[in-house]
Design goal:
Helices cover 4% and strands 38% of the residues. The chain has 3 helices and 43 strands. Strands 8, 9, 10, 11, 12, 14, 20, 21 and 26 form a 9-stranded antiparallel beta sheet that branches. Strands 7-6-13-25-24 form a 5-stranded antiparallel beta sheet, with helices on one face.
């Protein structure tokens, strides 16, 4: 069994962070936007629709049994619906005839990577609305975590990019700069060049935490892309070469019918507004669903994991009724040339399609732990996947749903000491592979993971002279790079709100009005929009718009006089520019750990011994799912209480569930649905008794529908 309990406690400057290996642990989110443990830092990424964090010690995000965000989707839901349990980064090389690998381990702060001691981290606007720039290394003079004689002499500088607006908010992009310094390697035989270098993105995914039973045990893993003909097998029924089951439309939708185009590829050129063609002489004529395009067929090169049918549960619970309908995956947008690429030279034009070197997977029972084992996976030559470079679908190899990881690799590279290897990786979550309606979270039509990855390609080449058939590397300096030049909205203003006699009073600053649009070189702010959500910061309702008046002035305050006492509310104020782009609804109140903080309008108490007006709200209590675990969503309130009383909660059969002593002097008391033993109560009819010190009481009932 993999599930031994292994807890590593990190002493933080702010709060505590616990990594528990037991994936069944349901920890709350307990981190701030940037926290430090000695030299370890994490930066939360809460700008896009998918929430994650980035570290400076080789962890690429993930919940890690510590309540952290890990490609949590949708961001802001009452439950931390993480899809990524652990994100790992791996590099392997051959030195002196031996294989050496440096990679993230568990717990991630004690892995083989160490933070770069002289590097200044950054989080804020950059190439995207929210960049995070960090660094870690495997230098012999700066990395005490790796053993002597094993340091590859590698330093990583990592830039993470994220955006708040459609259609760029379901992925997070990563620019990776790998620097080799032979003087920082203590491996015998290390020379001017580091040879046979493979780079791998290792994702341990659990799809997803909204699963009420086992979010990890019923997953499956797949790959979209070129497979070197390895999947040309008539016995493969889940994934195979030349698979053609759907027609991918240019408006982020699909038709469930073949179109003559391999589903492992997307058309570049069917949306000229976003997809320019560098050299039309190298493009091909593509016929699809009655339309003709001049463009390229680009392989996704995408590894992904999704929720399957748990064999231990009756019926088909694939996607958990929509709660876990997302597919999480990632792909390389840019890499230097490798032997895996498709390269055609036509005169002065070089046509190059980037293809990953390998796609591998394994389950929790076979995590690699030696250099030889890790390198074999990086190289795509591992006996566990029958030496397939592109490991087929588990069911095509006779395996069932389980807890899987994927490893998507590129290489082999040869790096000269002092040189920098530049790569770009994107990862995100989509509604299935091809899109669908999100009835569970109430967001309507959502792009599929294939659309998400294609939009990442469009974002990378926006403003750049290259295209996916003429790939160009990133430049670290935002002022010199020509990639990622997509229109962006103004930033969300700094917002504060609190109860007042008139209602909820909101006030915000003028940051958005002063923001200079990077593409226009001038401010383009137009107006503010005010939103309100109840129970969780999701599915916000527009309640007001604030425009400039005739004198050119604009208000920075608003009072919502429709908020009802006793209900948890969230507010957001967004900024809208002249193109209609809008900042994210993410400036609601948060606690010291950056978790959503509800505002509840206070209730005045009744007379000292008056219990006649006591009631429970909401009644019935409708939990969003069995797994509701946050205070926001698993709380009901007793209203119109006297200043001092005791509240007794019973089952319908009369068994005491909870006693609450109310001495706050207010007219409200909340209950988190936990009994005296700290266990969440089940659905059913409950009785309550509210009793004052002089013996007056009221008996009532409420219903929990979970």
């Amino acid at each position: 069994m993999k599930y031994y309990l292994k807890v590593f406690i990190l002493l933080m400057l702010v709060g505590g962070l616990i990594f528990a290996r037991n994936k069944n642990a349901n920890s709350g989110i307990t981190t701030s936007s940037a926290m430090k443990t000695s030299e370890n830092l994490i930066f939360q990424i809460l700008v896009p629709e998918v929430w994650n964090y980035m570290s400076n010690y080789g962890s690429l995000g993930g919940e890690f049994g510590a309540g952290l965000y890990g490609y949590s989707w949708p961001g802001g839901a009452a439950v931390n619906n993480y899809y990524l349990w652990g994100g790992y980064f791996a590099i392997g090389a051959k030195v002196g005839g031996r294989y050496y690998t440096t990679y993230t381990q568990y717990p991630p702060t004690t892995g083989l990577w160490a933070p770069t001691s002289d590097f200044i981290e950054y989080a804020g606007p950059g190439k995207s609305v929210y960049d995070v720039v960090v660094s870690w290394n495997d230098f012999k003079d700066d990395n005490p975590r790796n053993s002597s004689g094993r340091h590859l002499g590698i330093k990583i500088i990592w830039r993470t990019l994220s955006w708040p607006h459609e259609p760029y908010n379901d992925f997070i992009a990563h620019e990776i700069y790998i620097i080799y310094d032979k003087s920082q390697s203590d491996i015998a035989g290390a020379g001017d060049y580091l040879d046979s270098v493979f780079v791998g993105m290792w994702y341990d995914c659990d799809v997803s935490n909204a699963d009420p039973t086992d979010p990890h045990i019923d997953d499956l893993v797949g790959f979209d892309g070129w497979t070197k003909g390895e999947w040309n097998n008539p016995n493969f029924t889940y994934l195979w070469d030349n698979m053609d089951l759907v027609t991918h439309m240019s408006n982020d939708t699909f038709l469930p019918e073949p179109d003559g185009i391999n589903d492992h590829y997307f058309i570049w050129g069917d949306e000229p507004e976003y997809e320019k063609i560098v050299d039309s002489s190298m493009a091909i004529t593509i016929n699809q669903a009655g339309n003709t395009y001049l463009g390229y067929l680009i392989p996704y090169g995408m590894s992904y994991i999704y929720d399957g049918d748990n064999p231990a549960d009756p019926g088909d619970d694939t996607g958990e009724g929509g709660a876990c309908a997302g597919y999480i995956g990632g792909a390389w947008i840019y890499t230097p040339p490798t032997p895996s690429d498709s390269i055609v030279i036509n005169g002065t034009d070089t046509f190059r399609i980037i293809r990953p070197w390998s796609h591998q997977w394994w389950n929790w029972e076979s995590d690699p732990a030696t250099d030889e084992d890790v390198y074999a996976y990086l190289k795509g030559k591992h006996p566990a996947t029958l030496f397939y470079r592109y490991a087929p679908h588990p069911k095509d190899l006779g395996f069932k749903e389980f807890d899987y990881r994927f490893l998507n690799t590129v290489g082999p590279f040869r790096i000269k000491s002092g040189d920098t290897l530049k790569l770009v990786w994107v990862a995100g979550v989509g509604q299935g592979l091809d899109g669908g309606y999100d009835d569970y979270w109430g967001r309507g039509w959502q792009r599929g993971l294939r659309h998400v990855i294609e939009w990442a390609f469009k974002a990378y080449y926006a403003g750049d002279p290259g295209d996916p058939a003429h790939p160009t590397p990133p430049k670290f300096d935002p002022n010199k790079d020509t990639h990622w030049k997509i229109p962006v909205p103004p930033p969300a203003p700094l917002l504060r709100y609190s109860p007042s006699p008139e209602g909820v009073a909101l006030a915000w600053d003028n940051t958005a009005e002063r923001y200079v649009d990077p593409l226009k070189g001038r401010p383009d702010f137009v107006k503010y929009r005010i939103y309100r959500a109840i129970y969780q910061p999701l599915n916000f309702e527009l309640i007001a718009e604030i425009n400039y008046d005739a004198e050119g002035n604009i208000a920075h305050n608003y009072v919502d006089n429709e908020a009802k006492p006793g209900y948890p509310y969230y507010y957001a104020v967004t900024a809208v520019d002249e193109d209609g782009l809008e900042s994210p609804t993410n400036n609601y109140l948060k606690d010291e750990y950056n978790n959503p903080l509800p505002l509840i309008m206070p209730v005045s108490p009744s007379l000292p011994n008056d219990v006649s007006g006591v009631y429970v709200t909401p009644n019935p209590f409708k939990g969003s799912a069995k797994w509701s675990q946050t205070e926001v969503h698993s709380t009901l309130a007793f209203m119109n209480l006297p200043p001092s009383c005791n509240i007794y909660i019973f089952t319908f059969s009369g068994k005491l569930v909870k006693k609450i002593v109310h001495r706050s002097g207010t007219g409200m008391e909340t209950w988190n649905l936990l009994n005296e033993d700290g266990i969440k109560v089940s659905s059913g009819v409950y009785l309550y008794k509210v009793e004052t010190p002089n013996g007056n009481y009221k008996i009532g009932k409420f219903v929990i529908l979970d």
